[in-house]
Amino acid sequence: MSLFPIIQPQAADVDTELPFYREVAWDYEKNAPIWKNGNPVMLEGKEAVYVWAWNALHTPRFRYEIYTWAYGNEAESLIGQNYSDELKQAEGIRYVRECLLINPYITDVQNTSVSFADGILTIACTLVTVYGEIDLNGDVNINV
């Protein structure tokens, strides 16, 4: 109920269309951005979303003040827990999904599997993005 019921607020124009996604190209072996002639190489579309996903999975959540609390992977919290292998896998899958689905360009994470060996979290999944599907396979060092 409004103080002045005869005055109705105008609906704001909401632009729900996402801008075309751009990200700096990444050298996954060196874990560093790729530069050419003194400038970062830029990627667009699903390749850019892949770079974002890779970096988000390799960033521990809540550790660095530069990132929001929504960014990063919480799999590190499994270190030292006396969980069964099944529970570790279930939690690992949940952490991967939560990490990736914060990005509005990623609409779903499918076929997710994780495994732990020698402090390495191995991830395999399919990202469903606004640009199409991307297979993501990689290792994250979390010392579980």
List the SSEs and their pairings:
Blueprint: E1 22-24, E2 26-27, E3 32-33, E4 35-36, E5 39-40, E6 42-44, H1 46-57, H2 85-100, E7 106-117, E8 120-129, E9 132-141
Antiparallel strand pairs: 1-6, 2-3, 4-5, 7-8, 8-9
Which architecture does the CATH hierarchy give at level 2?
Roll
Strand content: 25-35%
Tell me the overall shape. globular
Number of strands: 9
Could you say how many structural domains there are in total? 1
- The helix fraction, in percent, is 10-25%
CA-atom Rg in angstroms? 19 Å
Structural class by SSE content = alpha+beta
Strand arrangement, largest sheet? Answer: 7-8-9
Q: Could you report the average pLDDT, rounded to the nearest whole number?
A: 86
- Quote the CATH topology: Nuclear Transport Factor 2, Chain: A
What's the CATH class, please? Alpha Beta
Number of helices: 2
Question: Which residue ranges are poorly predicted, with pLDDT under 50 across at least 5 consecutive positions?
Answer: none
Largest sheet: 3 strands, antiparallel
Distance between the termini: 54 Å
Order of helices and strands: EEEEEEHHEEE
Organism: Caproiciproducens galactitolivorans
Protein name: DUF2634 domain-containing protein
InterPro entries: Sheath_initiator
